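Board notes (copied after class):
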Amino acid sequence: MEEKNEKNKMPRFSLTWLYMILLMGIGVLFLMQGDESASRGATYTEFKEYVSKGYAEKIIANKDEGTLKMFVTKAHIRDVFKQDAKTTGLQPYITVQYGALEKLEDFLDEQEKEGKFTGGISYERASGLWTSLLINIGPILIFFFLISFMFRRMGNGMGGSSGIFNVGRSKAKLVDKDEKTRVTFKDVAGQEGAKEEVQEIVDFLKKPEKYTELGGKIPKGALLVGPPGTGKTLLAKAVAGEADVPFFSLSGSDFVEMFVGVGASRVRDLFRQAKEKAPCIIFIDEIDAIGRARSKNSSMGGNDERESTLNQLLTEMDGFGTNSGVIIMAATNRVDILDKALLRAGRFDRQIHVDLPDLNERKDIFGVHLRPIKLDNTVDVDMLARQTPGFSGADIANVCNEAALIAARHGKSYVGKQDFLDAVDRIIGGLEKKTKVLTTAEKRSIALHEAGHATISWFLEHANPLVKVTIVPRGRALGAAWYMPEERSITTKEQMLDEMCATLGGRAAEELFVGQISTGAMNDLERVTKQAYYMIAYIGMSSKLPNLCYYNNEEYSFSKPYSEATAQLIDEEVKKMISEQYERAKVILDEHKDGHAELANLLIEREVIFAEDVERIFGKRIWASRSEEILDNAVNEDNKEEVTTEVAIQSEEEKTNE
């Protein structure tokens, strides 16, 4: 104990001592500095004698003080100073008091004419006391200020978040539990399944003894997995808000820096701060920036700095105590590329899937984002939810904002139904280009193309129901058709083939009724080709390659998981599948060519037609009546999953009866 007390009594090192040492050193250097060349005084007579003998190299006269400096030439240094140049320096001089400046100049002019003085004379004025001090001490003060500034920044870096010496500090943003602007589950619409899973984490943080008394361990990490914009970050904030604990938020890219070792240092600092604030939550958004699978071969694109950061994160997740109250939540939409060590039990113990919202969840999300918007009586939330299949929460927020902007652009006092429909069209198809000029032939070709899509989708059982068709250019598209996709948990081969056939309907209509094909079907062909390769190479929907999946998610794999013969067979199967559906589309169009022609003419006349117009031409869609009735009931009774199953069963029964 005495030894410890003696150590504690030792004076602590202070930056003030360092400042004093630096200042004393600079002062000693200042006192020691000086002109290394020798100098001595001389009379005016001696000065004239030296000039007459040619000893003067140059002369500097001071008008204010009446003195001059005569610099001696190298050849005559010994004659004047009785020493060699090594002792006197390279530019020794004598100082002389002179009387009248006119006499001095006359004397020097006379010597120049005789060729005994060729150096010339220059003049200088005496500097004042403050000027002299500024010139001599100013650079020292500036140097001292810079040193002081750097060390102050270093001192601030020990407890702050900026400065060149604290580059290894964590950039995590802390949302303390006392802050008023906290997010709770009430602010998160939809995602009921994800809420149930994270509710257990809230219980762990609120009452950890409830689980630890029974021998249970609090989970260390939870990984939120889902597409962009589904509310993963918002859900993590809501967990912290519900548990009423501090919340550290940062992105995976915040660990990445150009300096070696900075990422690992920031990970250590983050967990140090978290332990001090425990119980708390650490949320790392886009964790795939540092959590990508480590390369087996570092010469093939491995990043040592990123991998060292990941290694430090793995160590810290295993390093702190099991019941310390620090829970890590992370979010990513690329879970397939994460390192396996990061996903093992004991680190990210559970994966919580945050999927795109279904119909009822979209209604709830619309309810949240419509609160601040002034609406009129025409707005139907159910209709908006049906019009936005596949939209994420961020997309729905964008729709609401875009609708408000459109209404304001037209000078309206309230936002109506048409504003929301225009907003959906704007987001899906792009900005309407009313100024784009099309020839009559181009307009007819586009109308036949879009009418081909609408016609085939109307007569195929599994094609998506049509909403409207337009030939008004939007974005890069010259025409577009809007559908109401059915929200399926699984998709059958027949459903995918019907969708492929409907997609090829535009190109088939061009070939049949225009007599030539155009570049307008490029997007359709791209979608169809990708879908065909997906069906054959990934989910085994081929007669010659049944039940085989060649999907490979190895990030650093440079070889195909199949032979060249198999690749050729895949190509042949893709061509065969697309050709069959293309011929099927032409057969359907040929059977209903009169209705197709009437639909195309209506498109040319109106530019926009709706499902009601198609129903008037072709009659009611036979596949839609019973399914739509059941789904309508499902929305009202909140039992959509059971009813969707009923629709599938009835469809099978109808096929059997037929």
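Comment from the instructor: Residues 159 and 616 are 74 Å apart (CA to CA). The longest helix spans residues 129-157.
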